[in-house]
C-alpha cells in the first residue's frame, strides 16, 4: 500500500492580520497623499519662481532698452551741435540741419527711411545714421535707407546728390573700415565731441 501523506490544515487570516494589512495600506495612502501635496507645492513654488524670473528678465531688458535709447539720444546730442561745421570744414556748404526726418511720398505715405540727422543745401545733402554702438548691420541698413532716399528724390524731381554717414560713440576699426568701404563718412567720438574720420584713400559714395 502507498504511503499516506498527512497535510496540516492552513491557518486562516485572523482579524489581527486583516487589521494590520488595513493599517499598513492606510499609512501608504497617507504617505502617497503627503508626497502628492509636497509635489504640488513644489510645482507651485517652481511656477512662482519662473514667473518672478520672467518678470525680472523683462524688467532688465526694459532697463537695457531705456538705457540704449537714452544713450542713443546722448550720442545724437553729441553729434548734432557741431556736425554741420565739421562737414563744412571738409569743403561742404551745408546751411540747413534736420533731425529725425521721415521720408514720405506726395500722399504722405511712409517710405521706410528715418534719417537721424540730415544736412543739406541746394546742391547736395548728407544723411547721418547715429548709433550708440555702430555694428555692421547698421551700415547695411543705412545702405538700404540711402537707396530709399534716392528713389524718393527721383520721384520728387530732387536732382541733388546725396552722401551717407554713420556716427557712433563706439565703433570698432572693423566696422569703421566696412562703412568707409561702403562709401560712408564715419563719425566717431573724440573726447567730449566728435570727429569725422576720413582716410587718405577714402572715396565717398554718391547716391
Succession of helices and strands: HEEEHEHEE
Helix fraction bin? 40-55%
Q: Give me the count of strands.
A: 6
Structural class: alpha/beta
| N- and C-termini, Cα separation | 124 Å
Main beta sheet strand tally, sense and closure? 6 strands, mixed
Mean pLDDT: 84
CATH architecture of the domain at 80-197: 3-Layer(aba) Sandwich
The radius of gyration over CA amounts to 38 Å
Spatial shape: rod-shaped
Oligomer description: single chain
Number of H- or I-type helical stretches: 3
| Uncertain spans | none
Can you walk me through this structure?
The chain is an alpha/beta fold and 207 residues long. It has a domain at 80-197: 3-Layer(aba) Sandwich (Restriction Endonuclease), CATH 3.40.91.50. 50% of the residues lie in helices and 25% in strands. It has three helices and six strands; from the N terminus they run H-E-E-E-H-E-H-E-E. It has helices spanning 15-88, 136-155, 173-181; strands spanning 96-104, 110-120, 124-133, 161-170, 185-190, 193-197. Strands 1-2-3-4-5-6 form a six-stranded mixed sheet, sandwiched between helices. The longest helix is centred in the first third of the chain and has 74 residues, at 15-88. It starts with 14 loop residues before the first helix and ends in a 10-residue tail after the last strand. The model has no long low-confidence stretch (mean pLDDT 84).
